[in-house]
Design goal:
Layout (H helix, E strand, L loop, with lengths): L8 E12 L8 E12 L3 E5 L6 H8 L7 E6 L2 E2 L4 H6 L1 E4 L11 H11 L9 H7 L15 H12 L6 E5 L7 H16 L3 E5 L3 H7 L2 E6 L2 E7 H6 L4 E6 L14 E4 L5 E5 L6 H10 L6 E5 L3 H9 L2
Parallel strand pairs: 3-8, 3-9, 6-7, 7-8
Antiparallel strand pairs: 1-2, 1-4, 4-5, 9-10, 11-13, 11-14, 12-13
The structure holds adenosine-5'-triphosphate.
The site of adenosine-5'-triphosphate has 11 residues, from strand 2 and helix 1.
């Protein structure tokens, strides 16, 4: 297997731009405005952004489904424009939409897909794939009789027929129940442990936080941050002390930068920057003013907070 990956990156994107041409009344739309991004081999990489940020455009360019306007894309070391065949072979994409031919069985779908990718019969792994995504029993059922969850698992299997080094998942768990979601995540983790680089978009920030080693956030077609997930969370200089004072009481003046707020459950939440204010300074100020402290909890910012902070406006 030729390994064209360079400098430990499964994907290297430089100066990527996409402008959708005007059509009818709709003006031209700049969906990507010059993105530079390298995705390390072996990572689970989260691509996040609000609706319309340009995530699908980027994924579709990687998949070879949308033509870029400018820039360079290297997949597994192969320049998309110079070696389109090799770069396409290195990547598998699980799309968002569930369109599929209603008269194909899962087995037939996988065989057709393998044919499209030119996978010789002896190298196909249809049965293993069906097993992997839990569709062995439905292998010969018509697709129209499959549930939404089963269709989604079939799409995952289809993305894997040519054993790509890189797997791209566009909202893989949107609208699926918790059991299926966990099964999909378990599959994805297993593939990653076997060496596959995973890129995913998701609206479930909690999942991105749990699953992804690194995260990039795009907004209005621009990359606004790209960091290891841990660093992204640690970089938020905001913590919250949640205090049960036995009910609402008068509060003393607190150090500048600390923001007290009464929650609906009657507890006091004080948000503060830990780089400048220590928790015990806050507690001393409260105690000194006779505020009872029946219970204290500390809350860390989560990815949701980071996301809101970075994409505001
Ligand atoms: N085929 C198209 N023609 C014209 N404009 C398009 C086309 N596809 C997407 N756009 C526009 O490009 C911008 C980026 O869209 P894109 O689908 O890439 O965003 P997204 O981040 O994937 O959003 P979502 O989370 O809603 O899927 C949007 O303003 C969208 O309206």
């Amino acid at each position: 297997m030729p390994d064209g990956s360079t400098a430990g990156n499964a994907i290297e994107i430089t100066g990527l731009r996409k402008t959708y041409a005007a059509s009818g009344n709709a003006p031209a739309k700049q969906a990507l405005m010059g993105i530079d991004l390298a995705i390390p081999t072996g990572s689970i990489f989260g691509l996040l952004g609000p609706n319309g940020a340009g995530k699908s455009t980027m994924i579709n360019i990687l998949a070879g489904l949308v033509n870029k306007t400018a820039g360079r894309v290297r997949i597994w070391g192969f320049d998309q424009d110079v070696n389109p065949r090799q770069s396409r072979a290195a990547i598998g994409v699980m799309p968002q939409e569930l369109n599929m031919d209603p008269f194909f069985t899962p087995r037939a779908s996988l065989e057709v897909q393998a044919g499209l990718y030119g996978v010789p019969k002896r190298e196909r792994w249809t049965d293993e794939l069906l097993e992997l995504v839990g569709l062995t029993e439905q292998a010969n059922a018509y697709a129209r009789n499959l549930s939404g969850g089963m269709r989604r698992r079939l799409l995952l299997a289809k993305a894997l027929v040519h054993r790509p080094q890189i797997l791209v998942l566009d909202e893989p768990t949107a609208g699926v129940d918790i059991t299926l979601r966990e099964m999909l995540w378990a599959n994805i983790r297993r593939l990653n442990e076997q060496g596959m680089t995973i890129i995913l978009t998701t609206h479930y920030l909690e999942e991105a936080e749990q699953m992804c080693d690194e995260i990039a956030i795009i907004n209005h077609g621009e990359l606004i941050v790209r960091k290891p997930t841990r660093e992204l969370l640690d970089g938020m200089d905001g913590k919250t002390l949640v205090i049960d004072a036995g009910g609402r009481v008068e509060l003393p003046a607190l150090p500048e930068g600390a923001h007290p707020e009464w929650r609906e459950d009657g507890r006091l939440a004080i948000t503060y920057p830990p780089s400048r204010i220590r928790a015990d300074t806050l507690l001393d100020a409260l105690r000194g003013a006779g505020v009872p402290i029946l219970d204290v909890a500390s809350e860390q910012p989560d990815l949701e907070d980071v996301f809101v902070e970075l994409t505001r406006g």
